[in-house]
Structures are given as C-alpha cells and as structure tokens.
Design a protein that fits this description.
17 helices; 4 iron, 4 sulfur cluster binding; Cobalt-precorrin-4 Transmethylase, domain 1; alpha/beta; single chain; binds iron/sulfur cluster; five-stranded mixed β-sheet
Length: 414
Amino acid sequence: MSANLKSYIQKSMGFKKEVKPLLHETYSSSLIDWMKEHAFRLNVEPLTFYLAEEFGFCYGVDRAVELAYESRKMFADKKIFLTSEIIHNPRVNAVLREKGIEFLSLNNEKLVEDNFKQIQSDDVVIIPAFGTTTQELDKLRDIGCTLVDTTCGSVMNVWKRVSRYGKDGFTAVVHGKYDHEETRATCSRVTQYTHGQYLVVRDLEQARYVCRFILGEINKETLLSYFSKEALSPNFDPDRDLKKIGCANQTTMLSSDSIEIADRIQEAMVKRYGRENIDQHFRHFDTICSATQERQDAVRKLIEQKMDLYLVIGGFNSSNTGHLVEMASEYGPAFHIQDPSDVISKDEIRHKLPYVKDIHITRDWLPKGRVKIGVTAGASSPNRVIEEVMKRVIEAAELRMPPFVSTALSEGKS
Ligand code: SF4
C-alpha cells in the first residue's frame, strides 16, 4: 500500500493528548453522561426521554475523527484533503471544513478527475471511515502524497471477505447501497481480480429477483433490466456470474434484512444445485459491524418499552441512522432529524421520512399529556447534538430542565 506514497499513516500521530480536549469540548455532553448514570432516562414532566443504551459515535467514527484532528496538528502548514465526508454528519464535517480541510467529493458524487488534479505530492489526503476505492487509492499512490487512512477495521473485514470471493471465483452479492462510499469501496476490492464480479442488492425485494433468476423463473434480460447499472460489475453476466455466490453486506445495513437476504439466496441455491453441492456454490459471512448491531439491538429494547414516539438523530445521508428509523417507525411515529433546528416548535418537526429521501414537516408531532420519547442516534452523531435536541424539545414544549439536573450539570457532576 505504502509504495510511492510519501507516508502512509493508520495510527495515532502522537497528538492524542492535544486533540482529546478539543474533541471533548466540541462533541461531548454532560447531560448524556448524566443520563447514562441515571438509567438512561430524563424526566421532565410530562415528558420522559428514554435514551437507547447504545447510540451515537462508534469506535470507527471516534478513531476517524481523532485521526483527522491529529492530522491537522501534525501537518499544520500543509494542504489537507478528505476524499469524501469523514462520516455522515453535517456538524462534524462543518468543523473539519472550518479547520481548513478540503473535501474532494460531496454527497456521494463520484470523485471527479479535476479534484484529483489539485492534489500535490506535498499534500495530505485523509481516507474516511468508510474507506475508498482501489482506483482512487491508485491515483493517490501515483501522486505520491501523504495518506492518512482512517478506514474502519470492520469495513476492512468486509473487504477481506469479498476479496476472497473474487479470488475464488465467487460473485460477491453485497447487501448495501451501490452509491454509498463504503459499498463502492467494497465492490472495487472484488474487481481487482480478473474474474471478480459483484451485484449490490438493496433490499429483500431485489434479493427476490436474484432468487427468481437462480430458480429459472426469469431470464437474464429481465434481471439485468431490473438492476441499475451501477449495482453490477462491468460485463456482469447473470448466466455466468450467478452460479457461485458469496454474500456479504455493507456494515451499516439492517442486520435482520442481511440475514434474510443471505438465507433466501442460499435456499434458492440449494434448490438449484442440491444440498450436497452447496459449498461449491454458496458462501456467506455476516459483515454487519458490532457497533451497528448494538445500536439496532438497543432500539429493539426501546421498542419493547413502548414509546409514544422516537427521535432518531443523525445525518440524512447516514445509512445506519436510516435503518434505526425504519425499525422504530414500525412501532410508532419515528422522526429522523439532523439537529435541534429540526424541532421547529412543539407543533412542527422537520424530518426525513423512513425508506425514502424526502424531507417532510409533520404537524402536531408532540402529543399532549405524558409522553415517552425514545431517543437514539446513528454511529456518526456526537453526544452534543443529542443533548441539544433534547434541550430544544424541552424548550419547544415550554418546559424547564428539573433543577436537580441543572444543578448537577452546572457543577459538572453526573
Ligand atoms: S458504523 Fe461500524 S463499520 Fe462504520 S465506522 Fe462505525 S464501527 Fe466502523
């Protein structure tokens, strides 16, 4: 990896001590710390906030943000670029931009050639937690710049699996979003092998099409016309490439869906090739990361406690946040919001609808009387934003923080 690069950095640059206070000052929350010490609850009559037991920044995001801050310290006089958003959180990205870090690609757009042309060998380029494609890495290697690679270990685990599929002649069927940075990077690990092929399936419905093809119920033209071109490797031929399948998934998908997709495809392959031959035709590794799994499990616990509504905080383009909203929305009103300004008033809330990209304003979102509000946040949401959202709800409802909480917070006690 490091050949030609000026320097390839994956670990702390020795500035942890300096950046910790900065990170704490920008992203931590004494209210969240207090809630953790008090059964994850905050009672502001007649509202009770129930915080999920796992939420917010994951280990991969913690590390990526810390390395970005360290890079700024280490390379104070150099130009620093990020290949895309470091994580899907507008607040965190805005802070990095304020620190003079430039973004080469935004909103999932493919990197454009021109953006790379501005990088010089003296510059520093940060790879975000989702990683980047092998093609982009090759370009950076050619430039010979300094690379700070914050790719999460759980993402690399997916790459390891799909690389193995590519090497062994198994087509990687990836449960994910073909335009998500992580999945684009994953697919590029497959096509680095001459015969490596991939197919990205977004949901159970798309997986059903794959199964129907395997079972001979639809022909390849129907299958190819159903999937977007970007979801398939170039020259993908279903007749040739769906005889041996290895399933994997984007780390942030809904784990129950990923498991069901793999099960359905396995079932179709068993029907087609026989149970005795299945090992030659099907492989599967669950590559949901533990942080995603824990956040989804914690939402299930909130659901068991029967909330009146759910506030799910995270970037509108955050995949893992979107899945938390989808889960909660099956059991009650679930509002995906980015920050406190989305709580317009006690009568109106701006939020992204589950399953689609539409932003919507819902009226009368906060019921009268006693209300149990389930609160969680995606893996890229800082605690500070969660605190601000709860404070905003309290303010919008014309309530006040209980004095004993305010006192504890002002005294810095939890
Ligand atoms: S969500 Fe999972 S894979 Fe993504 S950065 Fe966090 S720990 Fe890593």
